[in-house]
């Protein structure tokens, strides 16, 4: 705001202020005249005197309140003018922009592009359908067929897709059950049910046969959905299902020797588990359970 703009704004403010005083004064005078027309002897009528006194008190109280608000507004306008004229407001804005830019730079350096409370608020399924390469790492992927539909769309268009789930017969499945506070067979049952559902999906949607599925025997630490240069990453927590946890959206940059961004570490973690996993032979489903 320039000085000229400020002066014009202040002029409009003072004009409104003077108008307010005039309106209140006119109202009080009019009230007194109105009462005087009906009661000519005020000193002999106590009720009229009390009424006039109360009305006058209310009018004065309202006037004082409005003046106080205007004084507060004057103080704020003066402070804004000082901030504009001295350049402190511009410096504050510039400092805030600089801090945001620095934070964005630091996040980019470790490969973080965004974060969100849950996957439902993103368009990840559409992005997976358009991808040329998809990889999924989980103990099990959770309820719903969103992932299966997204993978189906991707492989139908020629994408390569890999699905890596926790081996239901491994000791780590029982360990994950204990971490969740569930019965020892909980994770095993979840994984087997998901594999059975996956087999059913493959029979009803043959395109899913192109998704290579493996089982890994290792400590489950991350839930990962990767497609092209994007990785959606969740961590495993005690007493908390990974599918309900917040996630990070990572951007995978070209690999550099010793690169240690979160995206590069997550990508190498997936590849190492994949190399040490075992192929899963699909069972022919006789019906969906």
* Morphology call: elongated
CATH topology of the largest domain: Endonuclease, Chain A
CATH class of the largest domain: Alpha Beta
Structural class: alpha+beta
* Biggest sheet overview: 8 strands, mixed
Radius of gyration: 35 Å
Helix content: 40-55%
Oligomer: single chain
- Give unreliable regions as ranges: none
- Relative strand content: 5-15%
- In what order do the strands lie side by side in the largest sheet? 1-7-6-5-2-3-4-8
Q: Helix-strand pattern, N to C?
A: HHHEHEHEHHEEEEHE
Structure summary, number of beta strands: 8
End-to-end Cα distance:
68 Å
**Overall average residue pLDDT:** 79
CATH architecture verdict of the largest domain: 2-Layer Sandwich
Secondary-structure blueprint:
Blueprint: H1 3-38, H2 46-86, H3 88-109, E1 112-116, H4 124-129, E2 133-138, H5 146-156, E3 160-166, H6 171-179, H7 186-204, E4 211-216, E5 222-227, E6 230-235, E7 247-251, H8 262-275, E8 278-279
Parallel strand pairs: 2-3, 3-4
Antiparallel strand pairs: 1-7, 2-5, 4-8, 5-6, 6-7
Plain-language structure description:
- The chain has 289 residues and is an alpha+beta fold.
- The radius of gyration is 35 Å and the shape is elongated.
- 55% of the residues lie in helices and 15% in strands.
- The chain has an 8-stranded mixed beta sheet, sandwiched between helices.
- It starts with a helix and ends in a 10-residue tail after the last strand.
- Helix 1 packs antiparallel against helix 2.
- The chain is built from 8 helices and 8 strands, in the order αααβαβαβααββββαβ.
- It folds into 2 domains: 3-86; 112-279, Endonuclease Chain A (Endonuclease, Chain A).
């Amino acid at each position: 705001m320039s000085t000229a703009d400020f002066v014009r704004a202040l002029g409009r403010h003072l004009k409104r202020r003077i108008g307010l005083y005039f309106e209140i004064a006119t109202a009080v005078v009019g009230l007194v005249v109105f009462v005087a027309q009906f009661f000519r002897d005020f000193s002999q009528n106590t009720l009229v005197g009390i009424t006039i006194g109360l009305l006058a008190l209310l009018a004065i109280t309202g006037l004082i309140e409005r003046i106080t608000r205007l004084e507060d507004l004057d103080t704020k306008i003066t402070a804004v003018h000082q901030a504009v004229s001295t350049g402190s407001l511009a410096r504050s804005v510039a400092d805030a922009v600089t801090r945001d830019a620095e934070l964005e730079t630091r996040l980019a350096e470790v490969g973080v592009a965004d974060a969100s409370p849950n996957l439902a608020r993103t368009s990840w399924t559409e992005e997976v359908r358009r991808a040329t390469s998809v990889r999924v790492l989980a103990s099990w992927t959770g309820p719903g067929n969103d992932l299966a539909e997204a993978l189906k769309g991707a492989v139908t268009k020629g994408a390569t897709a890999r699905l890596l789930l926790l081996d239901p017969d491994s000791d780590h499945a029982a360990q994950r059950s204990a971490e969740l506070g569930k019965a020892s067979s909980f994770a095993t049952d979840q994984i087997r049910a998901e594999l059975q559902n996956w087999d059913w999906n493959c029979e009803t949607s043959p395109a899913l046969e192109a998704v290579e599925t493996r089982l890994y025997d290792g400590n489950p630490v991350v839930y990962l959905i990767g497609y092209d240069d994007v990785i959606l990453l969740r961590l495993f927590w005690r007493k908390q299902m990974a599918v309900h946890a917040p996630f990070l959206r990572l951007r995978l940059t070209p690999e550099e020797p010793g690169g240690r961004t979160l995206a590069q570490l997550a990508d190498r973690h997936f590849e190492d588990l994949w190399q040490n996993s075992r192929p899963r032979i699909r069972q022919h489903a006789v019906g969906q359970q």
